[in-house]
Amino acid sequence: MSYDSYEIPDGITPLVGYRGWLVKDDALWSAFPSIRTVEWPVGKPLHSECLPPQRYSQNDDRRVANAPKHYWAPHIKCTCGIYALHGYPKLWEQREGERKKTPKPWPGEAVTGMVHGWGHIIVGDKGFRAQYAKPIALISRPRSVKWASVIERLAERYGLEIVDAREVRK
């Protein structure tokens, strides 16, 4: 059964996670286009797929895709799946008695938000990888006039709430 055109199935409590997206043509796109460029669909969930590993042909420099070794994504022995963090990352943390800036898990120009993840789930220390995910809210950036209008347009297009970043970081 495919859930691609449905909401979260009854009887399933989805996980809530945080992630970033790039914005292109008033649409949400995967934050790491070097790995895979994916536009998040409007009004339905994104379905995870495993990208077959690539190798170079022995005869020339062409890349050749190997068949995936598993039939569902995410898989425990692979890096496939839709990624999300358990908590919204704080900009600063205490390390070795000093206040140091922590690196962001997504590019600085990314829009951040919350997603529901369900289906086959692999849970890690910092986040999870899901088979299906759907955005549920975008996170506003305080003191950013540029992003306010972008986030408002995206929220309207995708039917999402807008959550203040100061509330999420508590």
Report the biggest beta sheet as strand number plus sense, adding barrel if it closes: 7 strands, mixed
Order of helices and strands: EEEEEEEEEEHEH
Tell me the span between the first and last alpha carbons: 39 Å
The level of helicity is: 10-25%
Q: How many distinct domains?
A: 1
Number of helices, where a helix is a run of at least 4 consecutive DSSP H or I residues: 2
* Structural Rg: 18 Å
- Average predicted confidence as pLDDT: 80
Number of strands: 11
Unreliable stretches (pLDDT < 50, length at least 5) are none
The structure class reads mainly beta
Beta-strand content bin: 35-45%
What best-fitting shape do the alpha-carbon axes yield?
A: globular
Question: Can you put this structure into words, describing what you see?
Answer:
The protein has one domain. Helix content is 11%, strand content 38%. The protein has helices at 145-158, 165-168, and strands at 15-24, 27-30, 46-47, 54-56, 63-65, 82-85, 92-95, 98-101, 111-123, 127-140, 161-164. The strands form 3 sheets. Strands 1, 2, 3, 6, 9, 10 and 11 form a 7-stranded mixed sheet that branches. The protein has a two-stranded antiparallel ribbon with strand order 4-5. A two-stranded antiparallel sheet has the order 7-8.
Question: Key terms for this structure?
Answer:
170 residues, mainly beta, seven-stranded mixed beta sheet, two-stranded antiparallel ribbon, 2 helices, 11 strands, 11% helix, 38% strand, globular
Question: Which secondary structure elements does this structure contain, and how are they paired or packed?
Answer:
Elements: E1 15-24, E2 27-30, E3 46-47, E4 54-56, E5 63-65, E6 82-85, E7 92-95, E8 98-101, E9 111-123, E10 127-140, H1 145-158, E11 161-164, H2 165-168
Parallel strand pairs: 10-11
Antiparallel strand pairs: 1-2, 1-9, 3-10, 4-5, 6-10, 7-8, 9-10
